[in-house]
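Module 6 notes. Inverse folding takes a fixed backbone as the condition and produces residue identities as the prediction. Think of it as a translation problem where the source language is geometry and the target language is the twenty amino acids. Below is one complete input and output pair. Work through it position by position during the lab.
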């Protein structure tokens, strides 16, 4: 799979998900992959290895979702996240649940469909 073919597949997936294809490329995959590993609790050395980063610049690629931030806030104040869900303070920070389906997830789903679908004869 060439870089150009991957870029084309990503842009087609973005367009089929109703997104502007000019805003997506192979960089989106690096950012999404680093973020998914980070949110899943993967060790930073593993993230660096799989992203082929030699420095800590991978940290610029990761994004935290609302659930991760809520979990972190609860840990910082020493509150069990389950217990925190029952407090008024936690309600101000947002619910502790899986994030809603995001455009990035829809985009990755469309990309998976494009890259795994059998090729049709023309």
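Target side of the pair, the amino acids:
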């Amino acid at each position: 799979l060439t870089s150009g073919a991957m870029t084309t597949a990503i842009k087609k997936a973005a367009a089929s998900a109703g997104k502007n294809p000019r805003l997506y490329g192979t960089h989106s995959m690096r950012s999404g992959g680093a973020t998914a590993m980070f949110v899943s609790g993967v060790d930073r050395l593993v993230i660096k290895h799989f992203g082929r980063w030699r420095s800590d610049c991978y940290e610029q690629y990761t994004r935290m979702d609302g659930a991760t931030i809520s979990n972190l806030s609860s840990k910082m104040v020493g509150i069990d996240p389950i217990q925190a869900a029952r407090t008024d303070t936690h309600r101000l920070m947002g619910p502790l649940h899986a994030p809603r389906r995001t455009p990035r997830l829809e985009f990755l789903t469309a990309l998976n469909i494009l890259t795994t679908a059998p090729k049709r004869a023309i």
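Reference fact for the lab report: The longest helix spans residues 3-16.
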